[in-house]
Amino acid sequence: MRVPGSVIVAGIVATLMILAAIVAPAIAPYDPTDMATYNLIDSELPPVWTGEGDARFPLGTDNQGRDLLSAIIYGARVSVGIGGAAVLLAATIGVSLGLLAGYFGGWIDAVVMRAGDIIMSFPTILLALLVSGLARALMPDGGSVGWTPFILIGAIAIHDWVQYARTVRAAAMVEGAKDYVKAARVIGLPGRRIMLHHILPNVMSPVLVIATINLAGAVLTEATLSFLGVGMPPNYPSLGTLIRIGNEFVFSGIWWIALFPAITLVILVLAVNMVGDHLRDRFNPKLRGRS
Amino acid sequence: MSATPLALEIVDLRVEYPMADGTAFVAVDGVSVSIAPGEIHALVGESGAGKTTVGNAVMGLLEAPGRVTGGAMRIAGVVVDPATGRAPGIEPGRDIGAIFQDPMTSLNPLFTVESQITETLRHHLGMDRRQSSAKALDLLRAVGIPEPERRLRAYPHQLSGGQRQRVVIAAALSCNPRLLVADEPTTALDVSIQSQILKLLRGLADDRGLGILLVTHNMGVVAEIADRVTIMHRGVAVESGPVVEVLDAPRHDYARSLIGAVPRIDVTLPRFAVPGEEAEAAEGARAELRRRAGEQTGAAEGELLRVEDLVVDYRGRGGSFRAVDGVGFSVRAGEVFGLVGESGCGKTTIANAIAGLVKPTAGRVLHRGRPIAAAGTRRPLQMIFQDPYSSLNARMRVGATLVEPILFYRLAASAREAAEDAALLLEAVGLERTAVERYPHAFSGGQRQRISIARALSARPSLLICDEPTSSLDVSIQAQILNLLKDLRDATGLTLLLISHDLAVIRQMCDRVAVMKAGRIVEEAPTETLFGAPTHAYTRELLSLVPSPRPKRRTA
Questions:
Q1: Lower CB density within 10 Å: C or N end of chain A?
Q2: Binary contact (A178, B390; C-beta < 8 A)
Q3: What is the pLDDT of residue B298?
Q4: Residue B514: per-residue pLDDT
Q5: Cβ-based contacts of A198 with chain B (< 8 Å)
Q6: Taking 90 as the threshold, does the pLDDT of residue A205 lie above it?
Q7: How far is CA B449 from the centre of its chain?
Q8: Is the Cβ pair B385, A183 closer than 8 Å?
Q9: Same domain for B352 and B226?
Q10: H-helix or E-strand containing B28?
């Protein structure tokens, strides 16, 4: 099966953006989290090509005189970091529970799957708002900035693990009925070893596909939460936070603060999604052979 | 021949599949077959021989890149256009009927039996509803379905496998075809149903003058009903002629080895006559295994396994089903004990219960007098499975698969020693030592089954449970695997519990046999006694139904 050109482009774009996010301190002109670099004299400067801008700030500045380009690169770092960690957490929980449910069945299966059904009956955002609100209220220093990324990661993962659990459970049930698993049981290997050593490697391909598609979703959820004001604070902004800040100024004609982070978010999510969709089609035997 | 044209005439047929690199794979190379009306012509060979391709070419069902590149076909005297696979005036479904292997999938589960048969009638013969219904009823009567009126309104899932295959035959016969292409029509069926279907096909050929092209791998089926046979090997017809001549005195080497590999039910032979492709190291490796087995257990005598009053219930929706109903037997050390019966008789459930895969509802399984339910007592009981393609973990190298049990039971002092043992086991089952490096997909079905056997042996079992170990293998591979199991038994004093539906395999392999029916053992006896003088009616019936590869002299 050939890989379509659009998917190759999307793959390159996604890789470049994620790389840029990872090495943000090396490539961003300024450190947007260091308030000492802000200067209110430079605030609300438009992008350089409008003629009224300043060559030091190619995409302009925000309301505090922060370089927007640097803020976006750092913002993408925060978004991808939180999204990636949420995917990792969700996949770890989901794969573990799915394996247990699929291999053992019975009441473990019933408990895991019903819990998943209940969680899936809540919209992602509602659940995330609930979790982050509860976390902030219950933790003694929950309001402190340091905890915010971890609260966000948990709030996103609590919804996303269900998908992994369902997929892995189904795959583990199929694999568990195959003769090589029976052979392992006849040898007398303990359940833990059979699950990790024999079943897990054989159910991982769909997990990778879901993880890719979920990465885009997690980045979006984080952006939504930050946009709603329960996410990352303005002094440590994610892309969503930047869009929220910019949103207040859009009607004053200062469009760039919201627009450029928004474009970045759209391109990032689109590129990752295209790669994920392609992977899904590729691993789906029903679609194989077509096109 | 008389004025009636041949039902099918194929001359020098050549079918090619173009490959990506521009060359072509020749699936069928110069095969000629002719079938007179009322004649059954069998096309036999192992998988990949091209026999199904010939059948598909006749029906115009070649899959996309494959095409007829040479030769000529005439169906009922009409020339088939090689480009389209169609003959003017000959319609598949009307003039050619088709029966496929799996009666489960060749009927549409959403339609009643009546609508599947009448569809063909209305489409090809333009009958109206009433006429076609009446005709469908006639057809069901003709194929011998009990209560045909009731069956008309049944859906496929309400019928048994044999009844479904009869419906498929009825649909194939609906428009009075001149030719019937039957591709492995009885392979998925039990012997008792197989024999009914074969009788039906023979009767249809005799009574209606139907020409039948019978594609099969089963020599017994050929001997039972075919008039002529063509043996195919790698796309070429190596031998062709009347069944009696070909099966009794095959001239071609391949034909001879193929027929020699078929397990015989009439006499017990010490070994299957197949060219052994054993590595030289195999014998030495087995001697080494024997030395170790001796160290471990000492002289093995007496009763090894005892099954007492075993009952296994499966709980499902709407009550439970008793798969095994009070079975008891014992296996002596060093013997091959056979468990034989038709599908659903509970033989695999017994294997699973002994291996610890299924929990018995009641009864006990004792190994050397000790119950084996406790953990850690499983090692001496190992198992090999039917499907060599699902019995190995595709993500593990062969070496890792074999080393795992060795290290788990600390049967080797170090990982290095375990790897050495794994290589030795591979040699003992007739593979190269270097196989440890590779993944299962690099091996053929027969080789994978050898690896499965090596894995089972790696735990140093005293009893090897073999659940239909050769049922999904070609007959020559089956012969090799069965020879291997015999060699291993002789060399290492292993005890085998062999489960099979194939009475001929059981006869060739076993010292004692238990015959099962509906969850119970109906007869247990030494093999020669059982086959020579069966006492139970069911055993006698089973034995009489097995098609023997010795052809019956039929008056033509």
A1: C
A2: yes
A3: 47
A4: 95
A5: 393, 396
A6: no
A7: 15
A8: yes
A9: no
A10: strand B24-35
